[in-house]
Design a protein that fits this description.
269 residues, alpha/beta, UDP-N-acetylmuramoyl-L-alanine:D-glutamate ligase, 9 strands, binds adenosine-5'-diphosphate, binds the ligand Cc1ncc(COP(=O)(O)OP(=O)(O)O)c(N)n1, Hydroxymethylpyrimidine/phosphomethylpyrimidine kinase, EC 2.7.1.49, phosphomethylpyrimidine kinase activity, ATP-binding
Length: 269
């Protein structure tokens, strides 16, 4: 029988379809992994910003995960927008209950337009309850600064921040370079507790980067679900997001979404 790989995303909904659950499911599908979701919050959002945030009850989040865990199961799990300390604790308990060790945590805090997607008091719950369970964490530079309490300007700063995050129990840390001030390259740094690896691409000058972080972390999750190593998964995710940014769709009036089918099209020829 053909093996079907399954990935679960626990995240918020982006009505505009560029980030959140929608970006995750599109990415899973493009990478031939069966996608499942547990919604934590509904956001009213488009390319111009976030117009509303409506969190779900802890019970609703728990029950969705329970429904998946007791029937379908998951080869890898990703978390995105978790919004509150209560939801984080509930998600961590379910991850433990089902023994999901291929966990990718994208520590979503603030949308590109500045809207908060995680309550400030939830940061310590993230560090205490979820990070010790993570196989991979994928902060952008501002998120890594909040989690470590240090300012990050140079590559050496990123090394130090990655070490501090590793000390919290995360097995692999990827500090992304989208927010770096390098005009030529976008460099993501991976730390596995022993060595650093660098994933470098040409920086594309574009306004259409809504959902890049979600898409990148979802691609890592999909590849882990298929049994790839973390290094291989990050390599594919980097190629996936590069294609998605490069072949922008040009829709909406603000920060447009990336193109989730670009990687597949590039690999068809
Ligand atoms: N302008 C760009 N050109 C090429 N790659 C980019 C660009 N902006 C972001 N990336 C890549 O997209 C991914 C997400 O990065 P980042 O923007 O830092 O995350 P977030 O969306 O969470 O803020 C990373 O792999 C990063 O290197
Ligand atoms: C519902 C929801 N989840 C996550 C995000 C943040 O997504 P990200 O990939 O970091 O992209 P930007 O918002 O920074 O463009 C979101 N916006 N909505």
């Amino acid at each position: 029988m053909r093996n079907v790989y399954k990935a679960l995303t626990i995240a918020g909904s982006d009505s505009g379809g560029g980030a959140g659950i929608q970006a995750d499911l599109k990415t899973f599908q493009e990478l031939r992994v069966f996608g499942m979701s547990a919604l934590t919050a509904v956001t009213a959002q488009n390319t111009l910003g976030v117009q509303g945030v409506y969190p779900l009850s802890v019970e609703a989040v728990e029950q969705q995960i329970e429904s998946i865990g007791t029937d379908l199961g998951a080869d890898a799990v990703k978390t995105g927008m978790l919004f509150s300390a209560e939801i984080i604790q509930a998600v961590a308990a379910k991850v433990k209950q089902f023994g999901w060790n291929q966990l990718v945590v994208d520590p979503v805090m603030i949308a590109k337009g500045g809207a908060p997607l995680l309550q400030e008091e939830a940061v310590s719950a993230l560090k205490t309850h979820l990070l010790p369970l993570a196989m991979v964490i994928t902060p952008n530079i501002p998120e890594a600064e909040v989690l470590t309490g240090m300012t990050i300007r140079t590559i050496n700063d990123r090394h130090e921040a990655a070490k501090r995050l590793y000390e919290l129990g995360v097995k692999h840390v990827v500090i992304k370079g989208g927010h770096d001030d390098d005009d030529d390259e976008a460099v993501d740094v991976l730390y596995d507790g022993h060595e650093f690896s660098y994933f470098t691409s040409k920086r594309i000058e574009t306004n259409h980067t809504h959902g890049t972080g979600c898409t990148f972390a979802a691609a890592i999750t999909a590849e882990l679900a298929k049994g790839r190593s973390v290094k291989e998964a990050v390599q594919t995710a980097k190629a996936f997001i590069q294609a998605a940014i490069e072949h922008e769709l040009g829709i909406g009036h603000g920060h447009g979404p990336t193109n989730h089918w670009a990687y597949r099209q590039a690999n068809l020829s």
